[in-house]
Amino acid sequence: MEAGAKDVFYEPIYMKKNRPAWLLSVICEEATAEQMERIIFQNTTTIGIRHLKMQRTVMERRMDMVSTTLGKVRVKECHYENITKRYPEYDDIRQICRQRDIGFSDAYARIRSEIQIEEE
Q1: Domain map (residue ranges) of the chain
Q2: Distances in Å between the alpha carbon of 33 and those of 4, 20, 27, 92, 119?
Q3: For 96-105, b where at least 16 C-beta lie within 10 A, e where not — what string?
Q4: Which of 64, 83, 60 lies closest to 72, judged by CA?
Q5: Main-chain dihedrals φ then ψ at residue 43, nearest 5 degrees
Q6: Which of 76, 100, 96, 97 is nearest to 86 (CA)?
Q7: How far apart are the C-alpha atoms of 31 and 36, rounded to whole Å?
Q8: Contact, 77 vs 62, CB < 8 A?
């Protein structure tokens, strides 16, 4: 991620002869693909990398700071045509949970209900 990947994740899989393995997926811009390959070859046992080009549709986004009953929270507001969604930032909820000694699920649900606008 520090080298510029948009996202990185891995999944347990079985290869030929039922050998257990990990599928490493790195989502990046084409401009950083060679650097990602270098990092993968340098830090894993793989001897080959498969490439897939994808297209992505992204909702327009903006950040707001919102006051809630649990404290101030950054909220990501996303728009696409007539669809609007609002999401509290994970790090802000985590901090509130630590400060108030409450569970993440409860804090998330409470904050989400306070910031929610009608979604279509």
Answers
A1: 1-56, 60-115
A2: 9, 26, 9, 32, 36
A3: bbeeeeeeee
A4: 64
A5: -115, 5
A6: 76
A7: 10
A8: yes
Residue 116 phi, psi dihedral angles, 5° rounding? -70, 135
pLDDT digits (tens, 9 = 90+) for 59-95: 999 999 999 999 999 999 999 999 999 999 999 999 9
Amino acid at 2: E
Which tokens sit at 19?
A: 């050998």
Task: Lay out the sheet containing 60-68: strands in order across.
Answer: 60-68, 71-80, 83-88
Task: Report DSSP letters for 102-113, one per residue.
Answer: --HHHHHHHHHH
Do strands 20-27 and 71-80 pair parallel, antiparallel, or not at all (unpaired)? unpaired
**Residue 16: half-sphere exposure toward Cβ, Cα within 13 Å:** 0
Tokens 């992204």 correspond to what residue? Answer: 58
Query: Cα separation of 111 and 113, whole Å?
Result: 5
pTM above 0.90, yes or no: no
Gap between the Cα atoms of 5 and 71, Å rounded: 32
| DSSP state at residue 101 | T
